[in-house]
């Protein structure tokens, strides 16, 4: 039953195994870094919470004074004592409000800062990082993980601090009231600590199991819903149901375990508390009969013990919050630790912007795979170069090196004689633009999407760009024209229409160097023809590199490069290559034959 | 999208789910009894301390102390035990209910037609299957029980306090009034703010999602700053709304502590005076204060529980909205015994709510023949093919196989006869074997091997773990050509008589394209085929071509006939005639 998932290499997103691992050095560093700007507020918070707890703790004591001292001494004394209770209550209320408001603000400040920092960092990290990290994980870092920390800051922090202070304060007050009875009341504490440790361990295991099972359940659910077409046509439903019920059962079991752990822990704490109360009644009663303690002390003990055991119950609620926040912090600090592989220059240089591209002894590869082997190549300004070759030959790598999504391992890539590594982001992106077949549209209007090419461009420029690539007519046919909402990821438009918008975007950016990586391959024949017609306009006066499987796109090139195994094996004008009868000629023949 | 139901219909939704509780009736009764007994113990314990103070201590009677002390001990143990029974018993019930609803929801979703799934995003369905069901579970598990328990505890303790010493009892009861009012008011405003934060976090998530999925575009244009500003604006909104929530909560929780403490002070003053005057015993005063503090939590949590109930009702609505959608496509009675695979479209029409897609389509595909369907983007090619395995139903005319209307066949029989390979091959995060067999779980190793061979997909054996290798989003990524060939293998595994193929648009390199073409040629050899084609090379695999234009089949003929006689067809397929200017 479990073998349906198949085997895969391990994912790296594992949860830490125990609480001690939660706050590893880098998590701790991040936490310190986030808290440091709020030093002063944190000191204030500590002062406030101490005052608040002191006021809260004084109330049962005042009850004791009232019973032992006030009742025998009459109304005047009683009024003073009751006045003191009221003052204590007011102080507690006021400080508590101040605490909640201030800690809430600090928490939200930290959260905002964390969101900004992580988002900006993701944007800064190179494409190589994003390709291996995947968008799904980026999204969960910035949503569920940040929210887990938010939850801790919102409720958990308050709960933890109050619980700890109450526990310590209560124990102290019990001893002050009566050492013997106090010691007796504190006897269960070691048991309580052991019990809490058991609980923490069990709930760690249960929590982990819940996360694992729910992750599997969600993947299966989402995939079978997005793939429902395949499921129905191939009558996969019964098998899906069988798998789902197993996963759902596992998830239910994991939840059950979590709840069982809690249903042992909570009554357990209650049991210890109740036994203590009974013991205090017995021992305290005996002491009272011996006149060693007063009834007031006994009453205060009963009130204090209530205060002592209540926060213990909350700790169980709070523990999962702490755990998920710890795991989230660990993952976030891991992301923030990543250094962008493509770094900004210290002293950026200017560039002429004519568009001459030169590869100077460039080598590129991944740890186990050499992709480009020592390449020297000059593309003169204004030239249109087509790159052809089989999948994996290194065509896309060339494009990514020119647009500096990667840096070469050896050698330099130069734009108008300047190393790309010496150009700052705005200069580089202004000069080099790449269009891929992944024509992503952002939510918003068509005009907004074209304006990605040049933010703030007037509508007339947007329309001119659309007209130049042949997109104007279809845009005007949409309800709302340029103001038409594109829908979620452009879902309301065909692949071809989305691609035309992407071309308009690139045209509006008006770069000196334009790279088209399989940019027309998702178009049907009529749309492709439209784009090809437009390309003659678009490419006029700029340097262009076109990567394509379909040779129809290649025909407008001045020069063809045939790439094989990371080397350029043929280089020349298309007609010359065809007449020479090499590899390109072979490809061209095969393509001609495939046409009717 | 989810309609804004009135509350009465919402509570009905929740009530309609009650039958899920039926299998657990016995343990439900048992846990509720334990809960009531637990409350009784909670209330009685302070009364025992009263007896101890007023009895043994006041009279210095050591002998009476021990039995009362032991009674307190016994009650304490009983209370803990009863709490344990309630919690443990409750767990089985709520998990059982949640799991059962989720199973049923999933089963129902699998039966709903494509028209439903096209409209609902999987994220929306997921939030119903997870978040909403958890909300319902929490309400059934805790909300409902605590609601009843709290009310029970409130009335009993108040009654008890009134009975012990009515002036003070009245005072306590009066102090409960402002707390109750403020709690209910606060909860409403707090929930509103909380929901707003949630909505804004959702918007923020959308921006995050776009920035992650569109990272190449953002990088290509160097628009990181632009995207950050958008994110920052929204994050600021979340910040401000959260601060509103913080301020509300800080005011409320303060209030929640002031009132009981102030009441305590008053009770102490009046109680002490009464003790001095002899109308109240000291033990009663102590018991009174302890009992009084027992009231704070039930009152304070009332608002929370009511809010929880409202949320559970909304969730029940959202879940039932899906459960109440009838499966529009249900099978007929007939079974194709030995299908020949004669496929006919007879005057077929299809319309979406807003527009007509197909009308009066006539097409006859003889057994063993392959027909290519060619048409411009948006001409309804994919819709036409979806009508055969009944992923959608015709709105006019009929589709027949061997003369029988597909709507009269059982879905089982129909979908066994017809197999489909889609333009975008859907691969699941499962082993290769599971991905190929899908509904044919019983397929033998030999059958799988044959299918892989015919579809030119034997590369699967060379993957790191062979056919056990996990592919799909969470596994190994495969190239476009590999994915397509696996989809073909999947389609032919069940040996269908009719094969529907939707050719992909994305370009493959020359070698891969040759492999896929060869695979297509082989799978189409013995079956009736209908192929959606974008390229001349694919069209050549077919015996005849049907041209789809203006929502209907305008021409049927061989590729060369159409190429010679129909300019529209030439426009669609003849890429080489790029004769500009």
Q: What does the secondary structure layout of this molecule look like, with pairings?
A:
The complex is a heterodimer of chains A (596) and B (581).
Chain A: H1 19-22, H2 25-35, H3 39-73, H4 75-124, H5 127-133, H6 135-177, H7 179-186, H8 189-226, H9 228-233, H10 237-289, H11 295-337, E1 357-366, E2 369-379, E3 384-388, H12 395-402, E4 410-415, E5 418-419, H13 425-431, E6 432-436, H14 446-451, H15 459-468, H16 472-477, H17 495-509, E7 513-517, H18 525-539, E8 543-547, E9 559-564, E10 567-572, H19 574-580, H20 583-594
Parallel strand pairs in A: 3-8, 3-9, 6-7, 7-8
Antiparallel strand pairs in A: 1-2, 1-4, 4-5, 9-10
Chain B: H1 7-16, H2 25-59, H3 62-111, H4 114-119, H5 122-164, H6 166-213, H7 215-221, H8 224-277, H9 282-294, H10 296-323, E1 343-351, E2 356-365, E3 370-375, H11 381-386, E4 396-401, E5 404-405, H12 411-417, E6 418-421, H13 432-437, H14 445-454, H15 480-493, E7 498-502, H16 510-524, E8 528-532, H17 536-539, E9 544-549, E10 552-557, H18 559-565, H19 567-573
Parallel strand pairs in B: 3-8, 3-9, 6-7, 7-8
Antiparallel strand pairs in B: 1-2, 1-4, 4-5, 9-10
Describe this structure in words.
The complex is a heterodimer of chains A (596) and B (581). By secondary structure, chain A is an alpha/beta fold. Chain A has 2 domains: 22-337, ABC transporter transmembrane region fold; 357-594, 3-Layer(aba) Sandwich (Rossmann fold), CATH 3.40.50.300. Chain A is 64% helix and 10% strand. Chain A is built from 20 helices and 10 strands. In chain A, the strands form 2 sheets. A 6-stranded mixed beta sheet of chain A has the order 6-7-8-3-9-10, with helices on both faces. A 4-stranded antiparallel beta sheet of chain A has the order 2-1-4-5, with helices on one face. In chain A, strand 9 and strand 10 (567-572) form a beta hairpin. The two termini of chain A are 50 Å apart. In chain B, helix 1 crosses helix 10 (296-323) and helix 5 (122-164) packs antiparallel against helix 6 (166-213). Chain B has helices at 7-16, 25-59, 62-111, 114-119, 122-164, 166-213, 215-221, 224-277, 282-294, 296-323, 381-386, 411-417, 432-437, 445-454, 480-493, 510-524, 536-539, 559-565, 567-573, and strands at 343-351, 356-365, 370-375, 396-401, 404-405, 418-421, 498-502, 528-532, 544-549, 552-557. Helix content of chain B is 64%, strand content 10%. Chain B has 581 residues and is an alpha/beta fold. Chain B has 19 helices and 10 strands. In chain B, strand 4 and strand 5 (404-405) form a beta hairpin. A 6-stranded mixed beta sheet of chain B has the order 6-7-8-3-9-10. Chain B has a 4-stranded antiparallel beta sheet with strand order 2-1-4-5, with no helix packed on it. Chain B folds into 2 domains: 7-165 and 280-323, ABC transporter transmembrane region fold (Up-down Bundle), CATH 1.20.1560.10; 343-573, 3-Layer(aba) Sandwich (Rossmann fold). The interface between A and B is large, with 171 and 174 residues.
